[in-house]
Write a structure and sequence with these properties.
globular, about 0% strand, single chain, mainly alpha, about 55% helix, 20 helices
């Protein structure tokens, strides 16, 4: 028997769903929020529950969300801030007043460095060609201009992709809602089609591009570096072939892009659905041909996240990818990624999920960054229109759609007569009690 190279994990949500389904099936009851009671369940169900508990994995994101929910129920004067990475907290506070400008600027630079082809002096749509402007004038005749521009393009792509990945990683470690705050900016700045546009090219040619300038490359300019060995690629027919030396900068940028996309869409169904909207499966299949373990791993992770939304026909036609996911990607207990689940594929619930996430981010920002929050409102508040405010009771009642039981419609007049009209209330005594004041206890005496 061969052991898997990883240990399966289980989330708290997996345990809650397991107990909810089992209680409803065997007992016909539901205990919201209870993840410990197993009384009355069959022995096999209890054994499965113990296995899930033994594989329970809680990361800093789960701890941060539990702390946030607890602080929302705590009086303001007793709230305590939580962060795991003091350096990342300082970076977040310094970036917060202009977070939107920073994120959009990085994405614009990334778009400019990944979309310039042909004439190096061309400025498409009137935008600034940063690749041509950063080349010193005294070096433009020393080397091939085209190779020099491509080299600068690779360097900028590597630097910006690495910076974005570091920001996402450190903000996620510090607090999950800081990570989601940045991800929402990236989501509305159309970062998903930007990354897919970068990946929608001949990736084998990209990672093996020879745009190095020896006199400017480290450590080639100082030390002797042996010739790199050819690498293998897999064609659509399953045949292996060899390609030339790999450009480490382009390989590094490709891995960064895939990791950003995977972090950005993990456990977020609306963003995963957008991957299908922008037709990511054919693009990712081309990227999967690159023979590098990290590239293939993160491509398979992206396929694993959106497999349930692709339909049975796609899964039947791509069994090779499905088998590779089973072999190389960590699985969770009760993981149902290989088939569509009604609980997770209901696309009409995605707006509610987005609204709930936005509200949670708003509450977190207003709680701990209220000194900076007015300048960084991610979603403008919804103002009530005075024209829709009415004092007409009948019109208000007609606008409220409440499904009442049948016996209420039959007996509501009798209930009103008995509980409202026939019941006598001493309103004068009630008003006198308010005039004397109400005793709230010693805590409020001051």
């Amino acid at each position: 028997i061969h052991r898997l190279p990883w240990k399966p994990k289980a989330r708290q949500a997996d345990i809650e769903m397991y107990l909810r389904v089992c209680r409803q099936k065997h007992l016909g009851i539901n205990l919201p929020g209870d993840t410990e009671t197993t009384v009355g369940l069959p022995h096999s169900i209890q054994e499965g529950y113990k296995i899930l508990r033994s594989h329970l994995y809680r990361n800093t994101a789960d701890l941060a969300m539990d702390h946030h929910e607890q602080q929302m129920k705590t009086p303001m004067r007793k709230r305590k801030v939580l962060y795991f990475h003091p350096a990342a907290e300082g970076v977040f506070r310094s970036m917060l007043p202009k977070m939107e400008d920073y994120i959009i600027s990085l994405l614009k630079v990334l778009l400019a460095s990944a979309s310039i082809h042909g004439n190096p002096k061309a400025r498409p749509n009137g935008s600034l060609n940063i690749l041509y402007d950063v080349i010193p004038e005294h070096n433009q005749g020393a080397t091939d201009p085209k190779r020099d521009i491509q080299s600068h393009k690779e360097i900028i792509t590597k630097a910006v992709s690495g910076s974005l990945l570091l920001l996402l990683k450190h903000f996620r470690v510090n607090h999950i809602l800081q990570f989601e705050f940045v991800c929402q900016y990236m989501y509305y700045a159309m970062s998903i089609p930007l990354v897919l546009k970068f990946l929608n090219q001949d990736m084998n040619a990209f990672v093996t591009a020879d745009n190095n300038i020896p006199m400017q490359e480290f450590p080639i300019c100082l030390f002797y570096v042996p010739e790199p060995q050819p690498s293998r690629v897999i064609s659509d027919d399953g045949e292996e072939s060899t390609v030339g030396p790999v450009c480490w900068r382009n390989m590094f940028s490709t891995i960064n892009m895939l990791r950003i996309l995977q972090k950005f869409t993990k456990w977020r169904a609306p963003r995963v659905i957008y991957l299908n909207v922008y037709k990511s499966p054919p693009i990712l299949k081309k990227t999967l041909k690159v023979s590098h373990p990290m590239v293939q791993l993160y491509v398979l992770k992206l396929f694993k996240g959106q497999a349930r939304y692709m339909g049975k026909n796609w899964r039947k036609a791509n069994m090779r990818i499905m088998s590779a996911i089973y072999q190389h990607v960590r699985h969770r207990l009760l993981d149902d990624w290989a088939y569509g689940s009604d609980l997770d594929t209901r696309q009409w619930e995605t707006p509610q999920e987005i609204q709930q996430l936005n509200k949670t981010i708003q509450d977190y920002m207003a709680m701990w960054y209220k000194d900076l929050y007015p300048e960084t409102i991610l979603y403008p508040p919804q103002h009530i229109d005075d024209e829709h405010i009415t004092t007409d009771v009948d019109k208000f009642i007609a606008s409220v759609d409440v499904d009442m039981p049948r016996d209420f419609h039959e007996n509501w007049e009798e209930w009103v007569q008995k509980e409202v009209i026939d019941t006598q209330h001493d309103w004068d005594a009630l008003l006198k009690s308010f005039d004397k004041g109400v005793d709230f206890g010693e805590d409020f005496s001051s």
